[in-house]
Write a structure and sequence with these properties.
Strands 1-2-3-4-11-5-10-9-8-7-6 form an eleven-stranded mixed sheet, sandwiched between helices. 29% of the residues lie in helices and 32% in strands. With 234 residues, it is of the alpha+beta class. The mean pLDDT is 93. The radius of gyration is 18 Å and the shape is globular. The longest helix is centred in the first third of the chain and has 14 residues, at 47-60. The chain contains seven helices and eleven strands.
């Protein structure tokens, strides 16, 4: 699987500029590095020149220049960015497999669009408690067809997730559980609900490398590490 392309397509920046033999400059109001970074695949004839174009693009938008360095990243890019003082941020694990189609332990609400409670839970768990950027986040999420799942209790979404159909595979994103509801199996419930709803035989997801608890959960559901990426931030 081309994980660089799958992640790019499942999490679309609403402003994109293609440059230099395949690089894509992505901007979405500064909300999430995934939608506000350079997808740097391909082999630019002038690597230094391409980096300069990227830095100017983000500088014009008042943003630090960020590169996504994944399995298909331009050869030598990581080393060049390190030489320029770009720091490694958010090392991420890509996990893929044939998820188990077990029945969810609880009822899962699934919709074609995110509702307010879904958005608020995901955004709060993602660390943006003041609500800033929520409109841009919703715009990113709804940039491609997807399903939104949640386990709700007394009208509150305690655990949420997003599933993006992508040809023969399913991308799982936005898995988040409120702190007071953790270790009760709700994340597993949402994951299974989305997989069964999609009828997926193949799926992938991403999670931060330090989050070993999430990785154990996903392994128990049929996923294994299939790749890694990180960001380089100026």
């Amino acid at each position: 699987m081309d994980f660089d392309l799958l992640v790019h397509e499942a999490w679309p920046a609403y402003e994109q500029r293609r440059i230099r033999d395949g690089w894509v400059l992505r901007y979405a109001g500064g909300v999430t590095k995934r939608a506000n970074s350079v997808l740097a695949t391909g082999t630019p004839a002038d690597l230094a020149g391409a980096i300069g174009v990227a830095e100017a693009f983000y500088g014009e938008r008042g943003q630090r220049c960020v590169f996504s360095v994944g399995p298909g990243a331009t050869a030598g890019l990581d080393e060049e960015l390190a030489r320029r003082g770009y720091e490694v941020v958010d090392p991420t694990v890509i996990m893929a497999g044939s998820p188990r189609s077990a029945v969810a332990a609880h009822e899962v609400r699934i919709e074609d669009r995110p509702w307010r409670g879904w958005l608020e839970t995901w955004w709060a768990v993602d660390g943006r408690f003041d609500g800033s950027g929520l409109t841009d986040a919703e715009r990113i999420c709804t940039g491609v067809p997807a399903w939104y799942g949640a386990f709700e209790e007394n009208g509150v979404a305690l655990a949420v997730g997003r599933a993006v159909p992508q040809g023969d595979t399913l991308g799982i994103y936005c898995m988040a559980t409120r702190p007071e509801a953790r270790r009760r199996g709700f994340a597993r419930t949402v994951l299974r609900g989305l997989v069964r709803h999609a009828g997926a035989r193949s799926a992938y997801l991403v999670t931060t490398a330090p989050n070993e608890a999430a990785q154990r959960l996903y392994r128990s559901e049929g996923f294994e590490v299939a790749g890694r990426y990180h960001y380089r931030v100026r």
